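Anyone up for a design puzzle?
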């Protein structure tokens, strides 16, 4: 009897084992339950952008029969011309003699693209079709000129790349249609352009110089108002920290917020309008790669869609062993240079710093974005002519011309709680900073007086 019980129990255990094994083999999870599980939201704050989407010329000048023209409506013009010439094929590179460096007006059909700062050649390769087998002769350029030239009794469109930094001019052949190029330049006679004249700001020697083009006559620029939408600060806990669960929030004595995981830190500044991210790289002895900071910064920003609105590559500089790069807000083709919070540039600038290694160590940006369409366009503001502006600067008692490094008209940003107003002004880059130029124009229309 006892043996019979043992046998029965053994068979029961064997069958139970077979049953559980079968259950394990045939088990399928309840996907409906898994789908309802809350995952970390990977939504970015903006879209990823390519190099050609963040590099824009500060000025585009059309040369025709000794006259120079600039577009009134910058955004549409850039879409038609600059983007239209993106992706052109260029080859047959040659080094131009310094004696011929600024022979830019050797053709009645010429378009000049002037950038706010130098562009690395690696970025040019993303904009144009360039042969990797040919030598380019310089590491960066700050402007290029498309022009026509007769070669073997046949018209051809060429390009000159100019680098004032390295004092090099590179000439190359393009595949641009001659007939289309002529049509584009002739369009300068339409009412969508205003006449400008060249003004040499800085002379580098050997024929190299920084030239900007200023309006021959006074012209009008609209003031525009946009709604301002805040960017949620909690998004950056997920986007800028490797593990949001370890991030702690602190309230500073001045009322400002901070987030930290014990190493990296995010500070919310200026009444919630600006974010500063700090990523200390203690003991980072990694040698910096040859990768330009523009490419490093773009990778960092694309990782969380940081280039909201129309921010474009504007400048870079060295601060000892640290490199800094700036992206500037541009509204309808017009750059924003100052705000009503005069000491806070990061309402309209995104700045990043890279130390001795390859990581971004500091990142400062606005915590709001403006909607795509304006809610109001007010009466145009009259800006005095370029010659009147230069005369006013020259007559200013404490003005020192050698400290002047750039001239441009742009927007003053007036930030309110839920909207921003952009008002046109003349600006100069003076002693390393953009300043508003307050003047009374030729017709005594008050814009105030003096240099801020």
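Challenge accepted. My sequence:
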């Amino acid at each position: 009897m006892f043996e019979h019980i043992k046998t029965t129990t053994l068979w029961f255990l064997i069958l139970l084992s077979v049953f559980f094994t079968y259950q394990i083999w045939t088990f399928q999870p309840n996907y409906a339950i898994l789908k309802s599980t809350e995952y970390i939201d990977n939504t970015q704050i903006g879209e990823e952008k390519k190099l050609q989407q963040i590099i824009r010329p500060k000025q585009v000048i059309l040369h025709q029969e000794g006259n120079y023209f600039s577009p009134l409506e910058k955004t549409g013009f850039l879409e038609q011309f600059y983007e239209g010439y993106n992706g052109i094929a260029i080859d047959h590179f040659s080094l131009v003699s310094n004696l011929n460096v600024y022979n830019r007006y050797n053709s009645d059909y010429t378009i000049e693209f002037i950038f706010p700062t130098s562009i690395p050649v690696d970025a040019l390769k993303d904009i144009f079709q360039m042969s990797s087998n040919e030598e380019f002769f310089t590491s960066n350029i700050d402007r290029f000129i498309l022009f026509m030239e007769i070669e073997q009794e046949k018209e051809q469109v060429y390009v000159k790349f100019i680098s004032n930094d390295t004092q090099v001019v590179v000439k190359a052949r393009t595949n641009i249609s001659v007939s289309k190029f002529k049509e584009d330049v002739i369009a300068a006679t339409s009412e969508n352009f205003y006449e400008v004249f060249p003004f040499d700001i800085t002379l580098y020697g050997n024929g190299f110089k920084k030239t900007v083009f200023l309006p021959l006559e006074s012209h009008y620029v609209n003031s525009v108002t946009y709604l301002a939408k805040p960017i949620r600060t909690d998004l950056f806990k997920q986007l800028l920290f490797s593990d949001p669960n370890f991030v702690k929030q602190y309230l500073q004595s001045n009322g400002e917020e901070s987030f930290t995981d014990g190493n990296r830190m995010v500070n919310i500044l200026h009444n919630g309008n600006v974010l500063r991210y700090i990523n200390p790289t203690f003991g980072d002895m990694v040698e910096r790669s040859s990768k330009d900071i523009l490419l490093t910064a773009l990778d960092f920003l694309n990782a969380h869609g940081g280039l909201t609105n129309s921010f474009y590559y504007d400048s870079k500089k060295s601060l000892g062993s640290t490199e800094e790069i700036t992206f500037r807000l541009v509204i309808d083709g017009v750059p924003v240079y100052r705000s009503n919070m005069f000491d806070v540039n990061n309402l309209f600038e995104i700045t990043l710093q890279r130390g001795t290694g390859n990581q971004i160590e500091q990142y400062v940006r606005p915590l709001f974005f403006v909607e795509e369409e304006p809610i109001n366009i007010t009466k145009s503001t009259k800006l005095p002519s370029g010659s009147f502006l230069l005369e006013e600067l020259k007559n200013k008692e404490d003005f020192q011309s050698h400290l002047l490094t750039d001239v441009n008209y742009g927007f003053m940003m007036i930030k309110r709680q839920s909207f921003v107003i952009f008002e046109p002004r003349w600006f100069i880059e003076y002693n390393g900073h953009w300043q508003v130029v307050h003047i009374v124009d030729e017709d005594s229309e008050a814009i105030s007086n003096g240099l801020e």
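A detail worth pointing out: The chain has ten helices and 26 strands.
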